Amino acid sequence: MVTGVELPKVGSLVYENSHVVVVDKPAGWLSVPSRIGAKDERFCLGRVLEQQLALRLWPVHRLDAEVSGLLMFAKSAAAHRLLGAGFEHHQIHKTYLAWSTGRLPPDAKLGVAQRWQCRLLRGKKRAYLHAAGKDSVTMATPLLCESGQTLWRLCPLTGRPHQLRVELARRDCPIVGDSLYGSTATWGCGIALRAIELDLTDLVGRAELELPLRLSLALPGHEQAGRAWRSAVASTSGHSIHTACPAEGNS
Questions:
Q1: Which whole-number Å values give the CA distances from 226 to 71, 72, 80, 87, 193, in the listed order?
Q2: Tens-place pLDDT, residues 227-248
Q3: Known catalytic membership, residue 107
Q4: Where would I find the beta strands (DSSP E) of 134-238?
């Protein structure tokens, strides 16, 4: 992480109590330190947040540096064990929004959820389909098509590296800004993938940690949230993020 400079403020916290803190991670930030440590010039949200709050934090899950959205940290080893078990045993359910380019896949229909399943193997930089990989399962719903892009609601049922990015790219509709998987469009300093909800309903120990049933960043209606998010990124990046790539379906 960058040193010798004034650290930026993480911003408003989404949720905090005596056991956890949940933040809206900006795109371009690391969740936890990378393998090269201090040589990595990107800001690390976990480390910055520890200094901002003046306490030790335990990361319980991660987001790719290019991805924005809800990220949770535990304030104690005990909370970390409960939350870690929750993610490991699929008691915590995540929802993402994503904008993709390319035509809507021929087997997809607006508003209808599909189960995407494959076996993924992680390489040095990319994940790819391979018989020796691990099962990857995603529930995917295209919500709207407009301006050559499709807005998706994505609910991963497994937690494989780059799972959502691979699934869209292999259907010839890569996530906007995701040049690693074939996108030629830009999206601010990251990619158009945002973690918008953590459903904690099934979490064993939720009451003990004094957590609500859900934590969410979405406005009423995911379509509205997706449009607002795209508009905000376009205004802050100073250029249009639309593409000329056609899409099927009606908005």
A1: 19, 22, 31, 26, 10
A2: 999 999 988 865 545 433 333 3
A3: no
A4: 134-146, 149-156, 193-199, 214-216
In a domain, 133, yes or no: yes
The pLDDT, as a whole number, for residue 12 is: 67
Phi, psi of 23 (to 5 degrees): -125, 165
1, pLDDT greater than 50? no
Looking at 24, 40, 64, 107, which residue is catalytic?
64
- Contact assessment for residue 39 and residue 11, using Cβ atoms and an 8 Å cutoff: no
The pLDDT confidence band at residue 43, using thresholds 50, 70 and 90, is confident
Q: Which residues lie below 8 Å from residue 69, measured CB to CB, with a gap of 6+?
A: 24, 25, 63, 96, 193, 194, 195, 196, 217
Contact 172, 103 (CB under 8 A): yes
Tell me the two tokens of residue 71: 């990220």
243, part of any domain: no
Spatial distance between the Cα atoms of 101 and 23, rounded to a whole number of angstroms? 28
CATH of the domain at 52: 3.30.2350.10
Structure token pair of residue 146: 């407009």
